[in-house]
Amino acid sequence: MATLHQRRHYREAIMKSLYEAMEGNRLLGLTGAQLREHVAMPEEDLAAACTYLEAEGLIQVDWARGNTPAMVTLLHKGIQLMESEEKDGD
Question: Is-contact 29 22, C-beta < 8 A?
């Protein structure tokens, strides 16, 4: 299991990957395989991070068998969070 630092890093990496993937199109998302490749994390940590972010209302996850994310999409609240962080970084 990942450490607290790793879990936070994984969640941030997922949000950043989804935000970059959507490029202004809110309907775009990433498959679980694409997301795992982007953030380079073990499958069980990906599932845990997606569960956390989904519970926070930041992403939507379509789950496949075995607690595996099939498709992950950024929700409105997640977009707002990422835009706020982007603005604060300017």
Answer: yes
CA distance 86 to 22: 15
CA distance 45 to 79: 22
b/e 3-41 (16+ beta carbons within 10 angstroms → b)? eeeebebbbebbbebbbebbeeeeeebbebeebbebbeb
Q: What is the pLDDT of residues 25-59, one digit of tens each?
A: 666 789 898 998 889 888 899 999 999 999 999 99
Q: Which amino acid is at 85?
A: E
Tokens (6 digits) for 87? 């603005």
